[in-house]
Write a structure and sequence with these properties.
about 270 residues; mainly alpha; 9 helices; single chain; two-stranded antiparallel ribbon
């Protein structure tokens, strides 16, 4: 499942890398400016603006994964009316509060907080795309849907980090080769720039993909075993013609047994 999501997310990213990167950059700049200005006056207002912008960016990734058009104006989708603002801010504030409380547990708190963060990962998508779900229930709905998927979501992100680390490690070793090392050093620099620019976009698409595939699955959670065609007349895995007992009428494979396995009488 992870590799299929990777391929789909990469396909979206290769089609519109500059548009997604531009919208993501604009989202970051708006978050810094608006959060700073609003937070300077009212800290809670700055936090609310940050939550609304980040959620809008999540929806941009979801539109992109679905193959829909993405626009910069979508960054303000969460600001369109008071009900949406209230739903997103209160719903995410409630979710983050619970994650924070889990983190306060002595010793194992950080581990529980990480688990809960993946358990509640679908909450912002549910708050926006499923208005019928009460904002106080969105967190519970997310926990129910992510049952059986949390490890996959965590693995998808860790695998990406490991692949990047492995690529940089190999290129770093190759760059130590005399003369040719200059070429590999240049490749390492280009890769570092690409990862810095596109890794956030890729992971954003992957996270949106998990919401889409969990809520409207097109990828089976478990692989389906291929069906073996059975020839006409086969019984119990025997591919020879079926025969029938003259005493009880039961079908049995054509083997060397002299008695019917159903009634025990001699075969005739």
């Amino acid at each position: 499942m992870i590799m299929i999501i990777y391929k789909r997310a990469l396909a979206v990213l290769t089609k519109k890398p500059f548009r997604l990167w531009g919208i993501s950059l604009l989202s970051g700049l708006l978050s810094i400016v608006l959060t700073g200005l609003c937070g300077a006056a009212i800290p809670a207002l700055g936090l609310a603006v940050s939550l609304l912008l980040s959620t809008s960016m999540l929806m941009v990734y979801l539109h992109g994964y679905r193959g829909e058009e993405v626009k910069a104006v979508q960054l303000f989708d969460c600001f369109k009316d008071w009900n949406t603002i209230k739903r997103v801010v209160l719903g995410l504030a409630w979710t983050n509060l619970w994650i924070f409380l889990w983190a306060l547990i002595p010793l194992a708190g950080p581990v529980f907080a990480i688990i809960r963060s993946y358990e509640y990962r679908l909450t912002p998508y549910i708050l926006i795309t499923e208005p019928d779900v009460p904002l106080t229930e969105a967190m519970k709905v997310s926990a129910e849907r992510t049952n059986g998927y949390k490890l996959k979501m965590w693995g998808a992100e860790v695998l990406f980090v490991l692949m990047c680390f492995g690529a940089f490690l190999v290129l770093g070793l190759l760059s130590m080769i005399p003369y040719l090392g200059v070429l590999f050093g240049l490749i390492t620099f280009i890769l570092a720039v690409a990862v810095a620019m596109l890794s956030g976009l890729f992971l954003g698409l992957v996270r949106a993909a998990f919401y889409e595939e969990i809520s409207n699955p097109t990828i089976p959670l478990h692989p389906v075993a291929p069906q073996i065609p059975v020839q006409p007349g086969a019984v119990n895995g025997d591919f020879g013609p079926a025969r029938f007992c003259s005493s009880c009428g039961a079908a049995y494979p054509s083997d060397d047994s002299a008695f019917c396995p159903n009634c025990g009488k001699p075969r005739t």
